[in-house]
What does this fold into?
Amino acid sequence: MTLRTVAAHVGLSTTTVSHALSGRRPVSEQTCRQVRQAAQLLGYEAHRLARQNVTGRSDAVGVLCERSLGPLSDAGQAALLDAVSQVLQSAGLDCLMLASPGRGGVPLHERIVRDRHFDALLVLQTGSVDARIESLVRHHVPFVAVGRCRQPAAHVYPWLDLDEGGAAELAVGRLVDGAHRRIACVHLDPWLHATHAWCLGYRTAMQGGGLPVTPQMMLAAKRCAGDGYAAGVRLLAMRPRPSAVIVQHPQVGNGLMHALLDAGVDPCHELAVVVHEAWSSGRIDLPSPVARVRYEDLAAAAEWLGRRLVALVEGCTVAADHWLCRPSYWPADAMPDQPLG
It folds into this structure.
């Protein structure tokens, strides 16, 4: 099936048909619709390289992440990326992962956009102060981010983020309602804006409940079960020991709970654990039932991100709008398909 076959079918020149399919030259909407319908009927699909030469596009979106933070080991992040890639694929776009060699990674994303490897970027794991965001905004690179930053640039690009501050406040509030007074907090890399929000939410809720916040009760951990286990050992060694802990990431929570269980401590009754997880469809099985703070908007979030990326690839202006996904609390005895507690 060739372009000439489509042109003969609709009685137009190959040049007009090419312009109608590529959008590179003005063609009436009626003609464009007629050509697209004929191409679909005949099963015509433009050769990818030829189409890219005509349009000047790569038809690809790059996903820019921090290598050191390992997003593909994150079940929630992987679930979101899978859903976004399905939206992009339905629009004929590829979605490819890029790993910054180090924090900031400015040369990498400037080079790939300059060399037309990608038409737009999806930026993951934003920092409170993120050199990548500043650079992308300064060079007018089309991108959407999963995450905010605390720089002025945060107001001029579209982002979707989890309300991790609200999640921490929700978790602490439920524990305070359950008469807990010594509540610890385990958090991720302080560079991440998500961690800044999580810790701020924890402090806000503790202070709102009239409870003290001490540095010893705030433990940093990498995004892995090993660091979670080490954090659990440190919690058990505290005197007096906390009666509860909120954990920012499920892999860390997994390790922490194994430490409690190995020490013979019940993570539901002797030291209550509330684990923050991203999307319910990307959940990690934990060794014992615990309360979770989670989000249910995965499909809608993926659609929101995907449609904006498609618009950027097509050269459309995308508003710098924002979506902050709100969390819900699930008690330890809630099943995945049960109403929220």
Notes: The two ends are 57 Å apart (CA to CA). Confidence is low (pLDDT under 50) at residues 335-341. The longest strand covers residues 272-279. Residues 225 and 255 are 4 Å apart (CA to CA).
